[in-house]
Every structure is written in C-alpha cells, then in structure tokens.
C-alpha cells in the first residue's frame, strides 16, 4: 500500500526480512499487517478502521465529503455526486507517499539523511510515517481571492488533519467545492513529539469575532494537549503561540475519543470551549476560556459512570450534552451545568436493555440536531452464554419529544429544513400517527408567517400540509411490491371462436378459485397490518365524502403555498436579472414571461414585485426575447411554472431555479423529487451559475 522506495528494492527487502535469521526481525515483519497487507495464511483485511464526515457544503452538491480509512491503512475521500452513488475522488495515501518519496522521506531540508531501506529500523520508520491513525475535518474557512480584474470573490476551504503512527500530523487544505486532486491547495506536516498517539480532534474557538484553531491530540499513555496550527494562507484565522497541555500525567489510561463543544458561559458572559475525552471508564473534561488575563484552563474527571471502559462517545453540539457507552449496553447522558468558576456534570443512566433487551453496544452517535441517538448493537448473553453468531444492528432512540422538536424548528437560526431533517422526522412521525397538525403548532407557525414572512416558515408549512395529505390518503388494499398473480397470456384454445372443452372450463374455474383465495389471503394480511392507519372503506359512504372534501381542501392549501413560494423565488430571479443586465440585453432567462406570469393573477398585489417589474420592462425597451422550441423553432409561451408547451405540442419541463425550459435529455432533480433543474453550461454568466447552485425552493434539499 505504502510507497517506501523503488518497487524492486522493496521486494528484495521484504524477502530479506522474511527469511532473516534474527527472530526479532523475521517475526515482527511476518506478523505486522502494515508490512504484510496480504497476510498469506492470515485472514484478509477488509472493512474500515475509521471514517469522518466533513461539514455540510464541501462537495459539488453542497453536501458532506466522507474520509474513509480502510483496514489496510488506505485513506480516501468519497462524495455522493449522484443519488445513491458514492464516488472516490482522491487517494490521499498515494499522494502523500509520492510527496515523501520526492523529499527522500525527510520532513524538512535541514533533516539529516537516514539509513538505507535495507535497514529494518528505516523500513519501519518509512511505514510508520505513512500509517494513518485518525483523521478529522475542520470547519469551513472563507477567504477572499483577488481576480485579474481586481474583483474579490469569496473562496471556501476546509482542512483535513491526518494523525500518523509516528505522531506526525499532515494538514491538508482543500478548495471548495472539492472535486478531486486538482482541489488540493497545500499539505503541511507538523511534528508533535507525542508518544503513541491514539486520537485527534480540532479545537476551534471564536473570541471577539476572531477564529482560533488548534489540534487536540490524545495519547495511549494518557496525556492530552492542544497543538498550534499555523494557517498562513487563511486570513482572519489565528492559532496558539505554543502548545497547551490539558492533561500531562502518564497514568496509562488511553484516550479513546475527544470531542470539542463550543458553549456560552452565562456567568462570564463570553464564549468558551468544552473539551471532553474518554479515558478508560472515566470522562476527562477541560473548560477553556479566554479572558483579559489570557487563556484559563479548568479540568477534572467525571468518575463512577461505567464499570467497563467507554467504547464510544458522542456529543450534541446544540446544548453540550455528552453521551457515553460501554459494551454492557449502558449509555450515560452527561449534562454540563455552569458554576461561577467552571462547571459540573449531571448524569443519568439510559439502560438499553429495557428498550432492546439484552444487548452489547459497540458505538453511538447523535443526530445533527440532537433528535436521535443511533446505537450499534449485537445480541447480549442469554442464560449466561454468548451468542454463536453476531448480528450487528443500528437502533435509534428518540432524545426529544415532538413538542421540543417543533419548538426548535420554529426558533431555528439555520432556517433550512434539509439541515434539520432529524427534527422534521419527529414532526412527520407525529402527524402521520395522529392524522392532524396540532393546533399549537399551526397557530405558532401562522404567527411567525404574519410577523416575519420568511420563506423558511412557508416551506415548513408546506412540509406539514404534505405530511397531513399523505396521512389522510387511503392505504392501498394490496402491497405495492407484491407481484400480480393474474395471467396476462391467452391460450389459443381459449380465444373466441375456437370453443372450449369441459376440461378447459374446469381448469379455468379451479385457477380462478385459487387466484381468489390468494388475493383474499393477501388482502386479509394487509387489512390486519394497516387497520389502524387506513381510512374508512368504500362501504362507509357517510364518512367517505367529508374525507374527500378534506383532502381537496388540504390539496388546495398545498397549491396556494407552492404558488406563494414560486412567486417569491420569481421575484429573486427578476432581481438578479435587473442587477446583472444592460438595456435591451437578451438573457437566456424568460424575463418577460416571468413578469407576465406574476402579474396575471388579479388577486396578487405585491408592490415590490410591481415596482421591480416596471424597472425591468423599462430596461427591456419593449423587447420580449421569447424562448424557442429546439425541435420546431416555435415560440415557447410562459403559461405554466412547471412546463413549457409549444404550438406543435412539444413539452419541455421548466427549471425551478431559473424558469428556463430544460431542452436536453439530461437534467437534475431535487433529493425529494419535488422539482427539476437544468445543468449549468459554459456560456452561462456567473450570476446564472450562482442561481443554479441553490437548493430546492420547496423543501431545501440539494439538487442532483
């Protein structure tokens, strides 16, 4: 896997070490899977050691990148470029090995040359400096780049820190959106000098609108420290002057996991940073706070949590709650409570055995907004015996009530439904179960729309109405995936005019009877399964008509909210057209059609829209610039926001981001299949490309 020298020389060295007379060399070489990834008689190394998700907004679709470390120590970055399709973008192990090979395996020019590859210690050193232990993503940093015409544009970048076995850290800087090898800006290596490093985490702290960063590194022997990271290329970013030791005792308690949580100190009236680390069966915590006197560090341990070592730890960054678990199926919830000087933790036990039965836990993770706790479990002991086979399952535990999730969505500062999908899932489940929107939520949402008018609350209202409509629909009498038992083929003997024998008639009767019994069985099963969720059947004539009326009423509300969101986005598109066009300039956007569509409804009276349209029509100077059908060259009128139909009946779908007709065979769809959007073309100006990068105007989902 690793590039430690010329292939021929490496093969000779491997053969030499494997057949060495010295057992300390031959046995160490043969049993080390880093040197021997194929392993011969040993089991194959398949699977993943560790994975790390980047922040949202790093790939071409505005979603997360995935850094994956395989069992054979290969570090790669993957992206979900198409729906349900993951693509490897870059192999960092290969690139880092090439860099080391070009530098003769020296980290700086001042380094003295080491021994030859034939020396076993040098062979080990070259492998250990390329063997990743952990990797973690930083937050997104934004810098300004000056173009050739002296214009400034914001360029996003993200850092990936990779901790190696020899305690060095490689800090990769990637330009966003990350597309592959060409997006790598730089790679710097930091020497930490920590013995047996085990875990890594970014420390990011904001003080007086200044962002500070560093890397928290834990050791298998116990110490924890923060290392400065010099980001010279990133403006507005600062780091520590020197390393800060958070815990220095070599107490042989290995650091398993580190989390850094930004919080606000209610007594000191300033932001602070809480660092928690799992060490054995204890949780080490450290509160970092910058004051006029400098950096204040308060640390301690939380004991008495688990009787076994902590196997996994996660944190809810919304409120600072920490969750830990041991392998015996016990999860602890630690809630930080601030005091005048530092803080203390209140903790309570969550017994998974009461929910899932006897289980062993292997890992936990909390959802982005703290609505769910995901737990990886296997079967526990039964009658004092371990199970023969292990079946790994991912279980979900709700951490918030419906009321808490709804309140958080209403008061959210993010104002993006896609980024709060765990909270919306709780709300969706409640509405599907009760078949109505709670009165308090409807009233609170209406007040928000009246007072604020933000399109986020309109999208939230659309989400609630759609789920309500789904809950009111009649459940299908047959399972959709079950194949039909009806025979579509017709025998020649059964065709009209050929006649039929008594045997044929008897056979047909028996077939029909068997089909009927199968259908009856299937229907019986479905009715039992969906008895609670289904609406009154067709026999209930009295209850059917009011339900159909209610469905039509909800459908009308959905169409009204969709039309409002469409008009608001049309105003935004027209604003971009006005700002970026000259007099009588033809853009590819059907500007005149959008203007006429907005003004076509007499009931729609928006002064802002009328003033904007007046300015645009004055700029267009009576020009219309209509779209034309690419098949017959006829004019495509703008009569529908979803599609364009020419006089010859050719139908083209409209892009919901720019309202242009998508006259190609390839286009993009929103993640929930709400709308379609066209691909940007090289001749598109920058402002149109910016519009095409936006999320869905109905559900905030990215577009693929």
UniProtKB/TrEMBL annotation:
Biased composition range(s): Polar residues: 510-519
Domain (Transcription factor IIIC putative zinc-finger) ranges: 621-671
Stretches of the chain forming a coiled coil according to its record: none
Pfam families on file: DUF5921, TFIIIC_delta, zf-TFIIIC
Domain Transcription factor IIIC 90kDa subunit N-terminal: residue ranges: 8-400
Domain of life (superkingdom): Eukaryota
MF term (GO), any: histone acetyltransferase activity
Swiss-Prot/TrEMBL GO biological process terms: transcription initiation at RNA polymerase III promoter
InterPro entries: DUF5921, GTF3C4, TFIIIC_delta_N, TFIIIC_Znf, WD40_repeat_dom_sf
Region annotation Disordered: where it falls in the sequence: 491-544
Region forming the signal peptide: none
Domain DUF5921: 401-478
GO CC, alphabetical: transcription factor TFIIIC complex
Name recorded for this polypeptide: TF3C4 factor
